[in-house]
Amino acid sequence: MRSSLYTRIVLAYLVSVILGLFIAFYATGLLFSERIWADMKEDLHFVALDIIDTYKMTNGMDINEYLETRVLTRPFYVSLFDAEGSFREFGYRNVKNKRSVAPEAVQEVLAGGVHYSVLKEGGDEGALLGYPMEIDGRTYALFVQPAAPKMAKNIRNAMITALAIELAAGSVFILIGARYLVNPLKLMTRASRRIAKGDFNISLDWRRRRDELGELAASFTEMARELKQLERMRQDFVSNVSHEIQSPLTSIAGFSKVLQQRQMAEEERGEYLRIIETEAQRLSRLSENLLKLASLESEHHPFHPQTYDLDEQLRSVILTMEPIWSAKDLELDLELPPVKAHGDADQLSQVWMNLIGNALKFTPEGGTVRVGLKSGVDKVQVKVRDTGIGISEEDQAHIFERFYKADRSRTSTNGGSGLGLSIVKKIIELHGGTIEVASQPGEGTEFTVTLPHVLHRRRD
Predict the structure, then answer these.
(1) Are 297 and 426 in contact (CB under 8 A)?
(2) Which range of residues forms the domain containing residue 46?
Protein backbone atom coordinates (compact mmCIF):
# COMPACT_ATOMS: atom_id res chain seq x y z
CA MET A 1 0.00 0.00 0.00
CA ARG A 2 1.38 3.39 -1.00
CA SER A 3 2.03 5.72 1.91
CA SER A 4 1.04 9.34 1.26
CA LEU A 5 3.12 12.31 2.34
CA TYR A 6 0.31 13.35 4.65
CA THR A 7 0.48 10.00 6.48
CA ARG A 8 4.25 10.19 6.67
CA ILE A 9 4.19 13.67 8.18
CA VAL A 10 1.66 12.62 10.83
CA LEU A 11 3.53 9.41 11.67
CA ALA A 12 6.86 11.24 11.80
CA TYR A 13 5.33 13.77 14.18
CA LEU A 14 3.82 11.12 16.44
CA VAL A 15 7.01 9.06 16.60
CA SER A 16 9.20 12.09 17.27
CA VAL A 17 6.81 13.51 19.88
CA ILE A 18 6.41 10.19 21.69
CA LEU A 19 10.16 9.67 21.79
CA GLY A 20 10.62 13.27 22.91
CA LEU A 21 8.06 12.90 25.68
CA PHE A 22 9.59 9.60 26.79
CA ILE A 23 13.05 11.14 27.00
CA ALA A 24 11.70 14.33 28.64
CA PHE A 25 9.78 12.31 31.24
CA TYR A 26 12.74 10.26 32.38
CA ALA A 27 15.16 13.17 32.12
CA THR A 28 12.82 15.24 34.30
CA GLY A 29 12.63 12.39 36.81
CA LEU A 30 16.40 12.16 36.97
CA LEU A 31 16.81 15.91 37.31
CA PHE A 32 14.10 16.57 39.91
CA SER A 33 13.74 13.33 41.91
CA GLU A 34 16.57 14.24 44.25
CA ARG A 35 15.14 17.72 44.70
CA ILE A 36 11.70 16.29 45.50
CA TRP A 37 13.07 13.96 48.16
CA ALA A 38 15.35 16.67 49.57
CA ASP A 39 12.33 18.95 50.02
CA MET A 40 10.38 16.09 51.57
CA LYS A 41 13.19 15.38 54.05
CA GLU A 42 13.39 19.06 54.96
CA ASP A 43 9.63 19.21 55.59
CA LEU A 44 9.73 16.11 57.77
CA HIS A 45 12.59 17.55 59.86
CA PHE A 46 10.65 20.78 60.30
CA VAL A 47 7.50 18.95 61.41
CA ALA A 48 9.34 16.67 63.84
CA LEU A 49 11.37 19.49 65.44
CA ASP A 50 8.31 21.72 65.63
CA ILE A 51 6.36 18.98 67.45
CA ILE A 52 9.20 18.38 69.91
CA ASP A 53 10.04 22.05 70.58
CA THR A 54 6.41 23.11 70.95
CA TYR A 55 5.69 20.27 73.38
CA LYS A 56 8.51 21.48 75.64
CA MET A 57 6.64 24.74 76.05
CA THR A 58 3.40 23.06 77.18
CA ASN A 59 4.70 22.35 80.74
CA GLY A 60 3.92 18.65 80.75
CA MET A 61 0.68 18.55 78.74
CA ASP A 62 -0.68 15.08 78.08
CA ILE A 63 1.19 13.85 75.02
CA ASN A 64 -1.81 12.05 73.55
CA GLU A 65 -3.98 15.16 73.77
CA TYR A 66 -1.17 17.31 72.44
CA LEU A 67 -0.49 15.20 69.37
CA GLU A 68 -4.20 14.80 68.59
CA THR A 69 -4.81 18.54 68.66
CA ARG A 70 -1.72 19.57 66.74
CA VAL A 71 -2.96 21.06 63.46
CA LEU A 72 0.45 20.70 61.88
CA THR A 73 0.36 16.95 62.28
CA ARG A 74 -2.80 16.52 60.27
CA PRO A 75 -1.11 16.26 56.82
CA PHE A 76 1.23 13.68 58.29
CA TYR A 77 1.09 10.30 59.90
CA VAL A 78 2.81 10.32 63.34
CA SER A 79 3.71 7.33 65.51
CA LEU A 80 5.24 7.40 69.01
CA PHE A 81 7.25 4.43 70.35
CA ASP A 82 8.40 3.81 73.92
CA ALA A 83 11.25 1.67 75.17
CA GLU A 84 9.03 -1.40 75.58
CA GLY A 85 8.10 -1.31 71.86
CA SER A 86 4.49 -0.21 72.26
CA PHE A 87 3.34 2.67 70.04
CA ARG A 88 0.53 5.10 69.50
CA GLU A 89 -0.70 6.60 66.17
CA PHE A 90 -1.75 10.16 65.42
CA GLY A 91 -2.78 12.16 62.35
CA TYR A 92 -3.96 10.32 59.19
CA ARG A 93 -4.40 6.83 60.64
CA ASN A 94 -6.21 5.61 57.49
CA VAL A 95 -3.23 6.20 55.21
CA LYS A 96 -3.18 3.60 52.45
CA ASN A 97 0.01 1.57 52.13
CA LYS A 98 1.13 2.98 55.45
CA ARG A 99 4.78 2.24 56.09
CA SER A 100 5.63 0.17 59.15
CA VAL A 101 8.56 1.16 61.34
CA ALA A 102 11.30 -1.45 61.75
CA PRO A 103 12.41 -2.32 65.32
CA GLU A 104 15.99 -1.43 64.35
CA ALA A 105 14.87 2.09 63.46
CA VAL A 106 13.06 2.41 66.82
CA GLN A 107 16.14 1.31 68.76
CA GLU A 108 18.31 3.72 66.73
CA VAL A 109 16.13 6.67 67.69
CA LEU A 110 15.70 5.58 71.35
CA ALA A 111 19.49 5.51 71.55
CA GLY A 112 19.53 9.22 70.68
CA GLY A 113 20.05 9.04 66.91
CA VAL A 114 18.05 10.45 64.03
CA HIS A 115 16.68 8.02 61.46
CA TYR A 116 15.74 8.85 57.86
CA SER A 117 14.98 6.39 55.12
CA VAL A 118 13.08 6.08 51.83
CA LEU A 119 11.33 2.84 51.02
CA LYS A 120 11.03 1.73 47.37
CA GLU A 121 9.63 -1.72 47.62
CA GLY A 122 6.64 -2.94 45.65
CA GLY A 123 6.22 0.46 44.06
CA ASP A 124 5.76 2.12 47.47
CA GLU A 125 7.99 5.15 47.87
CA GLY A 126 7.65 6.42 51.47
CA ALA A 127 9.83 8.80 53.45
CA LEU A 128 10.28 8.07 57.17
CA LEU A 129 11.93 10.34 59.77
CA GLY A 130 12.54 9.45 63.42
CA TYR A 131 13.60 11.83 66.24
CA PRO A 132 14.16 11.15 69.96
CA MET A 133 11.66 12.96 72.23
CA GLU A 134 11.78 13.50 76.04
CA ILE A 135 8.40 13.06 77.79
CA ASP A 136 8.24 13.10 81.64
CA GLY A 137 11.90 12.16 81.85
CA ARG A 138 11.58 9.19 79.49
CA THR A 139 12.92 8.88 75.96
CA TYR A 140 10.46 8.10 73.17
CA ALA A 141 10.90 7.63 69.45
CA LEU A 142 8.82 10.02 67.35
CA PHE A 143 8.35 8.96 63.69
CA VAL A 144 6.80 11.17 61.03
CA GLN A 145 5.88 10.20 57.46
CA PRO A 146 3.79 11.95 54.78
CA ALA A 147 0.10 11.23 54.66
CA ALA A 148 0.59 10.40 50.93
CA PRO A 149 3.48 7.95 50.86
CA LYS A 150 3.26 7.73 47.01
CA MET A 151 3.76 11.44 46.35
CA ALA A 152 6.49 10.91 43.75
CA LYS A 153 4.38 8.32 41.97
CA ASN A 154 1.41 10.67 41.96
CA ILE A 155 3.58 13.41 40.51
CA ARG A 156 4.71 11.06 37.76
CA ASN A 157 1.13 10.05 37.06
CA ALA A 158 0.16 13.70 36.81
CA MET A 159 3.05 14.32 34.42
CA ILE A 160 2.09 11.32 32.27
CA THR A 161 -1.52 12.52 32.12
CA ALA A 162 -0.43 16.04 31.16
CA LEU A 163 1.91 14.72 28.49
CA ALA A 164 -0.76 12.39 27.11
CA ILE A 165 -3.18 15.31 26.82
CA GLU A 166 -0.45 17.35 25.14
CA LEU A 167 0.20 14.48 22.70
CA ALA A 168 -3.50 14.16 21.87
CA ALA A 169 -3.95 17.91 21.36
CA GLY A 170 -0.74 18.11 19.32
CA SER A 171 -1.88 15.21 17.13
CA VAL A 172 -5.09 17.06 16.28
CA PHE A 173 -3.14 20.19 15.38
CA ILE A 174 -0.59 18.28 13.27
CA LEU A 175 -3.44 16.56 11.40
CA ILE A 176 -4.78 19.98 10.48
CA GLY A 177 -1.36 21.53 9.86
CA ALA A 178 -0.11 18.61 7.77
CA ARG A 179 -3.15 18.87 5.53
CA TYR A 180 -2.38 22.57 5.09
CA LEU A 181 1.18 21.66 4.05
CA VAL A 182 0.23 18.76 1.79
CA ASN A 183 -2.65 20.41 -0.10
CA PRO A 184 -0.32 22.65 -2.18
CA LEU A 185 1.70 19.58 -3.16
CA LYS A 186 -1.50 17.84 -4.24
CA LEU A 187 -2.35 20.84 -6.41
CA MET A 188 1.11 20.68 -8.01
CA THR A 189 0.69 16.94 -8.55
CA ARG A 190 -2.55 17.54 -10.43
CA ALA A 191 -0.89 20.34 -12.37
CA SER A 192 2.03 18.07 -13.36
CA ARG A 193 -0.45 15.48 -14.64
CA ARG A 194 -2.07 18.16 -16.78
CA ILE A 195 1.35 19.09 -18.16
CA ALA A 196 2.04 15.41 -18.91
CA LYS A 197 -1.13 15.40 -21.03
CA GLY A 198 -0.04 18.51 -22.94
CA ASP A 199 -2.02 21.13 -21.03
CA PHE A 200 0.46 23.91 -20.18
CA ASN A 201 -2.10 26.50 -19.05
CA ILE A 202 -0.99 26.22 -15.44
CA SER A 203 -0.96 29.11 -13.00
CA LEU A 204 -0.22 28.54 -9.33
CA ASP A 205 -0.55 32.07 -8.02
CA TRP A 206 0.81 31.75 -4.48
CA ARG A 207 2.55 35.09 -4.25
CA ARG A 208 1.29 35.51 -0.69
CA ARG A 209 3.30 32.48 0.38
CA ARG A 210 6.87 33.51 1.06
CA ASP A 211 8.07 30.06 2.10
CA GLU A 212 9.69 27.23 0.14
CA LEU A 213 6.31 26.09 -1.21
CA GLY A 214 5.68 29.56 -2.58
CA GLU A 215 9.06 29.51 -4.34
CA LEU A 216 8.35 26.01 -5.66
CA ALA A 217 4.95 27.11 -6.99
CA ALA A 218 6.50 30.13 -8.71
CA SER A 219 9.17 27.91 -10.32
CA PHE A 220 6.52 25.40 -11.32
CA THR A 221 4.43 28.09 -13.00
CA GLU A 222 7.49 29.43 -14.79
CA MET A 223 8.35 25.90 -15.95
CA ALA A 224 4.84 25.44 -17.33
CA ARG A 225 5.13 28.76 -19.16
CA GLU A 226 8.48 27.78 -20.67
CA LEU A 227 7.15 24.37 -21.70
CA LYS A 228 4.16 26.05 -23.33
CA GLN A 229 6.49 28.27 -25.30
CA LEU A 230 8.69 25.32 -26.29
CA GLU A 231 5.63 23.37 -27.39
CA ARG A 232 4.46 26.29 -29.48
CA MET A 233 7.93 26.57 -31.03
CA ARG A 234 7.93 22.83 -31.72
CA GLN A 235 4.55 23.01 -33.41
CA ASP A 236 5.65 26.02 -35.46
CA PHE A 237 8.86 24.23 -36.40
CA VAL A 238 7.00 21.10 -37.53
CA SER A 239 4.48 23.23 -39.41
CA ASN A 240 7.20 25.25 -41.15
CA VAL A 241 9.26 22.20 -42.06
CA SER A 242 6.16 20.48 -43.42
CA HIS A 243 5.28 23.54 -45.47
CA GLU A 244 8.81 24.00 -46.81
CA ILE A 245 9.01 20.34 -47.78
CA GLN A 246 5.49 20.02 -49.14
CA SER A 247 5.81 22.88 -51.63
CA PRO A 248 8.77 21.52 -53.64
CA LEU A 249 7.49 17.96 -53.35
CA THR A 250 4.17 19.06 -54.85
CA SER A 251 5.97 20.76 -57.71
CA ILE A 252 8.23 17.77 -58.35
CA ALA A 253 5.34 15.31 -58.24
CA GLY A 254 3.12 17.50 -60.46
CA PHE A 255 5.64 18.17 -63.20
CA SER A 256 6.86 14.55 -63.14
CA LYS A 257 3.29 13.37 -63.70
CA VAL A 258 2.83 15.79 -66.59
CA LEU A 259 6.06 14.56 -68.21
CA GLN A 260 4.83 10.97 -68.01
CA GLN A 261 1.29 11.53 -69.26
CA ARG A 262 1.64 13.58 -72.44
CA GLN A 263 3.89 14.42 -75.33
CA MET A 264 5.46 17.87 -75.42
CA ALA A 265 8.11 19.89 -77.19
CA GLU A 266 11.72 19.55 -76.10
CA GLU A 267 11.82 23.17 -74.99
CA GLU A 268 8.75 22.70 -72.75
CA ARG A 269 10.12 19.40 -71.45
CA GLY A 270 13.43 21.07 -70.62
CA GLU A 271 11.63 23.85 -68.72
CA TYR A 272 9.73 21.29 -66.62
CA LEU A 273 12.93 19.39 -65.93
CA ARG A 274 14.67 22.61 -64.83
CA ILE A 275 11.81 23.31 -62.39
CA ILE A 276 12.08 19.79 -60.99
CA GLU A 277 15.84 20.23 -60.61
CA THR A 278 15.39 23.61 -58.87
CA GLU A 279 12.86 22.21 -56.42
CA ALA A 280 15.09 19.19 -55.73
CA GLN A 281 17.99 21.54 -55.01
CA ARG A 282 15.72 23.54 -52.73
CA LEU A 283 14.86 20.37 -50.79
CA SER A 284 18.53 19.53 -50.62
CA ARG A 285 19.40 22.97 -49.21
CA LEU A 286 16.59 22.73 -46.68
CA SER A 287 17.76 19.31 -45.53
CA GLU A 288 21.35 20.53 -45.36
CA ASN A 289 20.40 23.60 -43.31
CA LEU A 290 18.28 21.57 -40.90
CA LEU A 291 21.14 19.14 -40.37
CA LYS A 292 23.56 22.03 -39.97
CA LEU A 293 21.39 23.74 -37.37
CA ALA A 294 20.86 20.49 -35.46
CA SER A 295 24.59 19.84 -35.51
CA LEU A 296 25.40 23.33 -34.26
CA GLU A 297 23.01 22.89 -31.35
CA SER A 298 24.51 19.55 -30.36
CA GLU A 299 27.48 19.06 -28.06
CA HIS A 300 29.50 17.22 -30.70
CA HIS A 301 29.59 19.61 -33.63
CA PRO A 302 33.11 19.77 -35.19
CA PHE A 303 34.89 22.94 -34.11
CA HIS A 304 38.39 23.70 -35.37
CA PRO A 305 39.58 27.17 -34.31
CA GLN A 306 42.63 28.70 -35.94
CA THR A 307 44.18 32.10 -36.50
CA TYR A 308 43.77 33.35 -40.05
CA ASP A 309 43.43 36.52 -42.16
CA LEU A 310 39.85 37.66 -41.83
CA ASP A 311 40.18 40.40 -44.47
CA GLU A 312 41.30 37.84 -47.08
CA GLN A 313 38.38 35.57 -46.18
CA LEU A 314 35.90 38.43 -46.73
CA ARG A 315 37.47 39.29 -50.11
CA SER A 316 37.26 35.64 -51.17
CA VAL A 317 33.55 35.46 -50.25
CA ILE A 318 32.81 38.65 -52.21
CA LEU A 319 34.67 37.33 -55.28
CA THR A 320 32.65 34.09 -55.29
CA MET A 321 29.50 36.23 -55.52
CA GLU A 322 30.72 38.33 -58.42
CA PRO A 323 28.03 37.01 -60.81
CA ILE A 324 25.33 38.36 -58.51
CA TRP A 325 26.63 41.89 -57.98
CA SER A 326 27.86 42.18 -61.56
CA ALA A 327 24.46 41.20 -62.97
CA LYS A 328 22.72 43.82 -60.82
CA ASP A 329 25.40 46.47 -61.44
CA LEU A 330 25.87 46.98 -57.69
CA GLU A 331 28.57 49.20 -56.24
CA LEU A 332 30.77 47.51 -53.63
CA ASP A 333 32.38 49.71 -50.99
CA LEU A 334 35.02 47.67 -49.16
CA GLU A 335 37.04 48.75 -46.15
CA LEU A 336 39.11 45.69 -45.28
CA PRO A 337 42.38 46.48 -43.50
CA PRO A 338 44.61 43.51 -42.55
CA VAL A 339 43.04 41.84 -39.49
CA LYS A 340 43.78 38.52 -37.85
CA ALA A 341 40.85 36.51 -36.46
CA HIS A 342 40.75 33.38 -34.35
CA GLY A 343 37.92 30.95 -34.95
CA ASP A 344 36.58 28.16 -37.12
CA ALA A 345 37.25 29.51 -40.62
CA ASP A 346 34.71 27.24 -42.35
CA GLN A 347 31.88 28.19 -39.99
CA LEU A 348 32.64 31.92 -40.16
CA SER A 349 32.84 31.72 -43.94
CA GLN A 350 29.23 30.53 -43.92
CA VAL A 351 28.33 33.59 -41.81
CA TRP A 352 29.82 36.01 -44.36
CA MET A 353 28.29 34.08 -47.28
CA ASN A 354 24.85 34.44 -45.73
CA LEU A 355 25.08 38.09 -44.66
CA ILE A 356 26.73 39.37 -47.86
CA GLY A 357 24.47 37.14 -49.99
CA ASN A 358 21.35 38.62 -48.35
CA ALA A 359 22.71 42.16 -48.85
CA LEU A 360 23.26 41.51 -52.56
CA LYS A 361 19.91 39.74 -52.96
CA PHE A 362 17.76 42.49 -51.42
CA THR A 363 19.58 45.50 -52.87
CA PRO A 364 17.99 46.79 -56.09
CA GLU A 365 19.98 47.33 -59.27
CA GLY A 366 22.44 50.18 -59.06
CA GLY A 367 22.48 50.06 -55.26
CA THR A 368 25.45 49.91 -52.90
CA VAL A 369 26.73 47.22 -50.55
CA ARG A 370 29.38 48.19 -47.97
CA VAL A 371 31.53 45.67 -46.08
CA GLY A 372 33.70 47.10 -43.32
CA LEU A 373 36.23 45.47 -40.99
CA LYS A 374 37.62 47.04 -37.83
CA SER A 375 39.94 45.66 -35.16
CA GLY A 376 39.83 46.84 -31.55
CA VAL A 377 41.81 46.04 -28.44
CA ASP A 378 39.88 42.92 -27.54
CA LYS A 379 37.44 42.44 -30.41
CA VAL A 380 36.98 42.28 -34.16
CA GLN A 381 33.97 43.93 -35.81
CA VAL A 382 32.48 43.24 -39.25
CA LYS A 383 29.74 45.47 -40.72
CA VAL A 384 27.65 44.55 -43.77
CA ARG A 385 25.40 47.37 -44.99
CA ASP A 386 23.14 47.57 -48.03
CA THR A 387 20.78 50.10 -49.60
CA GLY A 388 18.03 47.54 -50.08
CA ILE A 389 14.41 47.24 -49.04
CA GLY A 390 15.13 47.32 -45.30
CA ILE A 391 13.46 45.49 -42.42
CA SER A 392 10.61 46.79 -40.28
CA GLU A 393 11.10 47.20 -36.54
CA GLU A 394 8.57 44.44 -35.88
CA ASP A 395 10.43 42.00 -38.13
CA GLN A 396 13.83 42.86 -36.63
CA ALA A 397 12.78 41.19 -33.38
CA HIS A 398 12.19 37.86 -35.16
CA ILE A 399 14.63 37.63 -38.08
CA PHE A 400 16.93 35.23 -36.18
CA GLU A 401 14.10 32.79 -35.50
CA ARG A 402 13.87 29.60 -37.54
CA PHE A 403 11.81 29.82 -40.74
CA TYR A 404 11.02 33.49 -40.16
CA LYS A 405 10.88 35.47 -43.40
CA ALA A 406 10.79 39.24 -43.09
CA ASP A 407 10.06 39.63 -46.81
CA ARG A 408 6.63 38.04 -47.27
CA SER A 409 6.92 38.49 -51.03
CA ARG A 410 9.77 35.97 -51.36
CA THR A 411 8.83 32.92 -53.39
CA SER A 412 10.32 29.49 -53.68
CA THR A 413 12.52 30.66 -56.53
CA ASN A 414 14.00 33.84 -55.07
CA GLY A 415 13.73 33.19 -51.34
CA GLY A 416 15.36 30.90 -48.81
CA SER A 417 13.99 28.64 -46.13
CA GLY A 418 14.27 31.15 -43.29
CA LEU A 419 17.06 29.18 -41.60
CA GLY A 420 20.08 31.19 -42.76
CA LEU A 421 20.09 33.87 -40.06
CA SER A 422 19.33 31.26 -37.38
CA ILE A 423 22.47 29.39 -38.44
CA VAL A 424 24.44 32.66 -38.53
CA LYS A 425 23.41 33.60 -35.01
CA LYS A 426 24.23 30.14 -33.67
CA ILE A 427 27.72 30.13 -35.23
CA ILE A 428 28.49 33.58 -33.83
CA GLU A 429 27.29 32.55 -30.36
CA LEU A 430 29.51 29.47 -30.51
CA HIS A 431 32.42 31.84 -31.10
CA GLY A 432 31.45 33.95 -28.09
CA GLY A 433 30.38 36.88 -30.26
CA THR A 434 27.25 38.91 -30.93
CA ILE A 435 25.24 40.02 -33.97
CA GLU A 436 23.09 43.15 -34.17
CA VAL A 437 20.80 44.54 -36.85
CA ALA A 438 19.83 48.12 -37.62
CA SER A 439 17.41 48.92 -40.43
CA GLN A 440 14.84 51.30 -41.79
CA PRO A 441 12.29 50.18 -44.40
CA GLY A 442 13.28 51.53 -47.83
CA GLU A 443 16.68 52.80 -46.61
CA GLY A 444 18.67 49.60 -46.17
CA THR A 445 19.95 47.27 -43.47
CA GLU A 446 23.18 46.97 -41.51
CA PHE A 447 24.36 43.83 -39.70
CA THR A 448 27.16 44.19 -37.14
CA VAL A 449 29.10 41.08 -36.08
CA THR A 450 31.42 41.37 -33.10
CA LEU A 451 33.92 38.59 -32.36
CA PRO A 452 36.39 38.37 -29.48
CA HIS A 453 40.12 38.33 -30.20
CA VAL A 454 40.56 35.54 -27.68
CA LEU A 455 38.12 32.78 -28.47
CA HIS A 456 35.85 31.49 -25.69
CA ARG A 457 33.58 28.89 -27.21
CA ARG A 458 30.05 29.04 -25.82
CA ARG A 459 27.64 26.18 -25.31
CA ASP A 460 23.94 26.69 -24.54
Answers:
(1) yes
(2) 5-157
